[in-house]
Design brief:
17% strand, alpha+beta, two-stranded antiparallel sheet
């Protein structure tokens, strides 16, 4: 695997983790959104990753985003019969978003992003060292 292929693999990871952080931030921002334009409470969103199919014999791959899906876990129900958004039983449907879980996921995505930045920097350093050896 050459310099450029390792950078491309890490760059695909950077893009995927950046999207994951954006989706997580959106989940946190909507943690209390009980009504969406589509109707009902906001549904937590998840990014689905997959390994890129290898394009050549070197086995070069990377990460690709297959899409963003809604978490199908149930809404968080809060008994508040005086709330105008309460259902017939007196429950308000809140998003299935746990801010604590989102923060943990955000830290994991941030660390993965940092790891990819480090891998790109190290590949660059090794490439510069190689060029220095060839110039000697």
């Amino acid at each position: 695997m050459g310099f450029y292929s390792s950078v491309e693999i890490s760059a695909s990871g950077l893009s995927a983790e950046r999207l994951a952080m954006d989706v997580i931030a959106n989940n946190i921002a909507n943690a209390n959104t009980t009504q969406t334009p589509q109707g009902g409470a906001f549904k937590r969103q998840l990014v689905v990753f997959a390994q890129k199919p290898t394009a050549n014999a070197s086995g070069q791959g990377g990460v690709e985003v297959l899409g963003i899906v809604q978490d199908q876990s149930p809404d968080r129900l809060v008994f508040d019969p005086g709330n105008p958004q309460a259902d017939a039983r007196g429950y308000v449907h809140y998003p299935n978003v746990s801010v604590v879980k989102e923060m943990v996921d955000l830290m994991a995505a941030s660390r993965a992003y940092e790891a990819n930045v480090t891998a790109i920097q190290e590949a660059r350093n090794m490439g510069q060292a190689t060029m220095g050896l060839l110039g000697s």
